[in-house]
Structures are given as structure tokens and as C-alpha cells.
Amino acid sequence: MPWEKSFDEDEAVGKAMKVFWEKGFEPASMADLIARTGITRGSLYNAFGGKEQLFVKALQKYDKDRRHAMLSALEAMDDPQRAIAALFDALVAETIADPEKKGCFLVNTASELTTHGEQVNGIVRAGLQETQAFLQRSIEAGQARQQFPAALDPEATAKGLMAMVVAIRVLGRGMFDAASLRTIAAQAQRLLR
Fold first, then answer.
1. DSSP classification of residue 113
2. CA distance 181 to 127
């Protein structure tokens, strides 16, 4: 008799995403995933193939639901200066509001790339590059509107801003308080002057 899935796959991936996001890939055990999703070990393996494949699906879900959705909303603002400011404000607000200090699943995964295969590394690399590309496009558009100085190097400035995005995400996990995170966001705006 063929195996029949008796659960919502997207919901299960969402629950698994929270486990991986809170703990990381290695520390998240199959017992943790089973407990959080409410799905048996056999069903998890049948549906996803294994822990690594479930992690890939969870990371893709996070990237689509969180990072991609945020960038799409920022791109729709049609004001590059305001979009960059809104990005940093949102990052700080999210970080401060997170009582578990989880940070960003994508950035967290970037810090453990050596434990993953090329598929996970590709998702992380693409996500970070797309965020940096958004910043660069916003700087170029802002320069065209004379919101930012023409002397700014868009690529170099986007890389600097990206480093500050990562800093907020990493340092916000417990090293820096709210005021310090706001200082980083303010420094990001100064890079654009």
C-alpha cells in the first residue's frame, strides 16, 4: 500500500523552520523536529527525505516568506532613501521584539556554511547577494533623484550597508542592546550622506 501524506507539508516546513532557526542545523535533532511538527519519523523521512532536505525546505520558506517579502515591499516604496531607512528600522525593530534572540535564519546559516552542502550555501549566497543588490539599486536610484551624493560608490556603499545589516542581525542576538542597534542603523544612514 503506498504511503499517503496526512499532514499539511507547508505547515510542517514552517514548524521545522522554527526549530532550525532557534537551534541551528546540527543542534536540532530529529526528536526536536518530530516533537514540534507532530509528525512521525517515518512520515518526515517519506515526505522530505531526511534532515538536510527538510532544512533546505525550511530555509527556502524563510527566504521567501521573510527576506523576499520584505525586499518586495521596500522596492514598492518608490523612494530609495526611505526604503533603505525602512529596512534598517525594520531590522532593529524585529531584533528588539524577538524575546528568543533568534536573529536571522539566513545570516545564522551563513555562519555555519561549512556544515552544509552546495544547495544550502547557494540559498544563503543568493539571499545575501540579492539584499546587497537591492541596496545598490536603491543607492543608484537615489543618486539619480539627487537624494544621495553622486560621489558615492554604489557598489562599495551597498557592501558597507550589507555589513551593517549582518551586524544588526548577529549582534542583536544578545551582544548589543536596543540603543546600540539603533546606533548601527543611524551609522548606515550616515554612509549615504
1. G
2. 22
| Cβ atoms of 189 and 88 closer than 8 Å | yes
* Nearest one of 142, 38, 50, 126 to 87, comparing CA atoms: 142
Torsion of CA 114, 96, 87, 130, to 10 degrees: 10
User: Which amino acid type is present at position 93?
Assistant: A
CA distance 26 to 14: 18
> For residue range 94-119, what is the model confidence (pLDDT) as tens digits?
999 999 999 999 999 998 878 888 99
Q: Grid coordinates in use for 100?
A: 528568543
Residue whose C-alpha is closest to residue 3's, from 52, 37, 40: 40
* pTM of the shown model: 0.91
Give yes or no for a contact between 67 and 108, defined as CB atoms under 8 angstroms apart.
no
Q: Which residue has the cell 541596496?
A: 135
Q: Which domains does the chain have, with CATH numbers?
A: 59-191 (1.10.357.10)
